[in-house]
Design a protein that fits this description.
single chain; about 250 residues; alpha/beta; TIM Barrel; eight-stranded mixed sheet; globular; binds iron/sulfur cluster
């Protein structure tokens, strides 16, 4: 048994429609080293929890969903942070691609092992650009932003298509200052296919009580869809403007 062919999954969502193009099976990897204040999946933080599976058994389970993927769908590795199980992740990407399945990695970019191999192998990276500011990143996630900056550099060198995402929280980062800094950061990147703002929501809060954890953003209201769309439109417009300036 090769240990890199086995890993822990918290759950499998057979037919997801928001984490990548088309209809996708979303695999939630167990383990995350970050502690984002707004995290709505705290049950995925612990490593070595959930179902222990081999790549082979996972692939055979997923094959039944493949006919629903059509031309653009596939599998998305999410979590938790899938990079926490880099050997298993890489084995999955390679096996699924060999089976003709499109692969996407939904990640914070917080990983140090096999990063070059992973970003070169995967078809799409859905990158959570939490904040362009190193100090804010530390306060928001309890980790060092330099790790995810390295990940992004490798992804750019591999020319892997990118979707950029950011969670926007009312009263925290729904500011012009964050919009401008985020636009500046995105405008420096290539191979971007999509930019998305995810409105902060509070649907994950009951999970904290269940896990006997204190919810750090208690009392912060959810962001409205309209506001999120407006923020997203302004961000995209600003990125396009800055990109045009950069090419002059
Ligand atoms: S990276 Fe994702 S799973 Fe990890 S703490 Fe942040 S929001 Fe939660």
């Amino acid at each position: 048994m090769n240990p890199s062919d086995w890993g822990y999954l918290q759950k499998i969502e057979p037919f997801g429609t928001v984490d990548g193009p088309g209809i996708r099976t979303v695999l939630f990897f167990a383990g995350c080293p970050l502690r984002c204040l707004y995290c709505h999946n705290p049950e995925t933080w612990q490593a070595q929890r959930g179902e222990y599976l081999s790549v082979e058994s996972l692939l055979s389970r997923i094959r039944r969903y493949v006919p629903y993927y059509g031309q653009v769908g596939g599998v998305t590795f999410s979590g938790g942070e899938p990079l926490m199980q880099s050997p298993f992740l890489l084995s999955c990407i390679r096996a699924f691609k060999a089976a003709g399945i499109h692969t996407a990695l939904d990640t914070s970019g917080f990983g140090k092992h096999l990063v070059e191999e992973i970003v070169s192998a995967v078809d799409l990276i859905i990158y959570d650009l939490k904040t362009p500011d190193a100090q804010v990143y530390q306060a928001l996630t309890s980790q060092n932003k330099a790790v995810t900056d390295d990940f992004l550099r490798h992804a750019q060198a591999a020319k892997t298509p990118l979707w950029i995402r950011q969670v926007v929280i009312p009263g925290r980062n729904d500011t012009l200052e964050n919009l401008e800094a985020t636009a500046q950061a995105i405008a420096r990147l290539d191979f971007i296919e999509r930019i998305e703002i995810l409105p902060y929501h509070t649907m994950g809060t009951p999970k904290y009580a269940k896990l006997s954890l204190t919810y750090p953003l208690e009392g912060v209201p959810a962001m409205g869809l309209q506001e999120a769309k407006a923020f997203e439109a302004a961000l995209i417009e600003r990125v396009e403007f800055l990109k045009k300036q950069n090419t002059r």
